[in-house]
Design a protein that fits this description.
Length: 507
């Protein structure tokens, strides 16, 4: 059974259909036949074993070519390199299933396309695909695939792009999202997902701050990239150290989701109308693995008890529901990506509760050796305001020599309008004692009147806090980096440096 699924779907018997051999047909629990196959652009015979997982709103099609599709309710054909994958029969029926697992294979064929008992395939112009009846067979027609011109994608990357990711369900969902965006931009690009366990995934018996190593969730992925075992790595940006390993860069920062922290109250308390930290009874136990959250909770809610909690999101919610905690503090973006938004009781405003550097953003890491090819490839992922905010926050954290083992929080904004309008950057940063009795929080905002285009007319290879984006104007990133460094210096001068020294000495 696929990890995270609550049912297993068997693979149907091997058979032959209309000249197609090595055909496998699986059935979903409601009896609908599932059949997927590929053809190359010339209609030549192809064969490949694939996995199809439907989980929390995404399809993950995998072999040595792995591709993710966001939930769709209409027919579409997708390209995996030169291979065409027809997945229309799966789309509508699975829309309401929270978790399912399918294992099927692609048929060895000679140019056949998929149809239904009622006729030929429904293409995008014909509207949504019609699902066959439970008893009806999948019918193949002999319509040859249309000829296609070679893609310019081959000039950038002509091999499967190996994507490194952690093994957690959230990490795989995030990786699937990135692959989907790349697939939208480069339909013929082929993908292979490489799952890797990290030290942070294994060491769940002690608090993160006591493991005593930076890159808890990235080091093993870095090693794979250095050894040329993967081509890119998809990270939660908040996990990425501000100083990357030698000859490595962040080649993309994706559009940021809500960076706020979220409160998830236990079901028993929520049923009693306790829905916020302010309303929780004194002595309520709050679970978090973050020193930043712990310090701010002790500062603002001294009547609550903070206890460490480890494990992935599934594990933490299970511990909450088992009664070990009264509430959890988690990143809202992670809860949303797991389709658990309904569990959120309260969103903590950044004006009252600073979030982690990079929280809500995904970063894509590459090696310097492949930058010339991969930076243009990753450009569609980049979201200029999110990139600038990442540089703002990471330069602040880097100057303070911080990481997950020190209580540092931020909040930022970046308004980047058209080239003829001014743009504004703002950053709030704070450091806290673990006892909650001292803190230094400061803010800076700057409005730049000079018209500065967000897109650079010339290529720049300079990295800003590990972020290297040749298509973004380096002037903006230089201003952002300077602001972050200057705010960190101001925090240090106002006593923040002594607070951090105290935190490090008492760990």
């Amino acid at each position: 059974m696929t990890p995270g699924s609550d049912r297993e779907v068997g693979v149907g018997a091997r058979g032959t259909t209309s000249g197609v051999d090595d055909t496998y047909t699986g059935h979903d629990p409601r009896g609908y036949p599932l059949f997927i196959f590929t053809r190359d652009r010339a209609g030549l015979a192809t064969h490949m074993i694939m996995n199809v997982e439907y989980r929390t709103g995404s399809f993950l099609v995998s072999d040595k070519a792995i591709y993710s599709m966001q939930l769709m309710k209409s027919y579409k054909g997708y390209e995996l390199g030169a291979l065409q994958v027809v997945v229309g029969l799966l789309m509508v029926q699975l829309a309401s299933w929270p978790k399912s697992s399918f294992k099927v294979s692609f048929a060895r064929n000679s140019g056949f396309t998929m149809g239904t008992p009622d006729g030929p395939p429904n293409g995008p112009a014909d509207g949504p695909a019609k699902l066959p009846s439970a008893a009806g067979p999948v019918v193949l027609s002999s319509t040859p695939p249309p000829s296609r011109e070679p893609s310019a994608m081959n000039d950038l990357w002509d091999e499967p792009l190996r994507v490194g990711t952690r093994k957690s369900e959230l990490a795989k969902i995030q990786t699937a999202w990135v692959i989907t965006r790349l697939k939208d931009a480069f339909p013929e690009l082929l993908f292979e997902v490489v799952e890797i366990s990290t030290l942070g995934d294994h060491r769940t018996d002690v608090p993160l701050s006591q493991v005593g190593q930076r890159g808890l969730f990235t080091k093993e992925l870095d090693i794979a990239l250095a050894n040329n075992e993967v081509d890119i790595i998809v990270h939660s940006l908040k996990d990425v150290p501000t100083v990357l390993p030698d000859r490595m860069l962040l080649g993309a920062v994706c559009e940021r989701e809500d960076p706020c922290d979220a409160v998830i109250v236990s079901k028993s308390l929520k049923n009693m109308e306790f829905r916020s930290l302010d309303s929780l009874p004194a002595g309520s136990v709050i679970g978090t693995s973050s020193l930043r959250r712990l310090a701010q909770l002790k500062t603002k809610y001294p009547n609550l008890v903070v206890q460490d909690i480890r494990g992935n999101l599934n594990t933490r919610l299970r511990k909450l529901d088992e009664g070990n905690y009264d509430a959890l503090i988690l990143a809202a973006c992670g809860v949303t990506r797991m389709n658990w938004s309904h569990r959120i009781s309260e969103l903590l405003s950044p004006s009252e509760f600073l979030y982690a550097v990079g929280q809500g953003s995904l970063g894509v890491q590459i090696s310097e050796e492949s930058a010339s090819k991969l930076l243009p490839l990753l450009h569609p992922l980049c979201h200029p305001p999110s990139v600038v905010r990442a540089v703002l926050e990471r330069s602040f954290l880097k100057r303070l020599e911080g990481g997950c083992s020190v209580p540092i929080g931020v909040a930022s904004e970046a308004t980047l309008p058209s080239a003829k309008e001014p743009w504004t950057l703002s950053l709030t940063g704070g450091v806290f004692t673990l006892e909650g009795d001292q803190s230094v929080v400061m803010s800076v905002q700057k409005r730049f009147s000079d018209p500065i285009s967000t897109l650079s007319e010339t290529s720049s290879s300079k990295a800003f806090s590990g972020i290297a984006l040749s298509q973004l104007n380096p002037v903006i990133l230089e201003k952002a980096e300077e602001m972050g460094v200057n705010l960190a210096d101001a925090v240090i001068q106002q006593g923040g440096g002594k607070i951090l020294d105290h935190v490090r000495s008492t760990k």
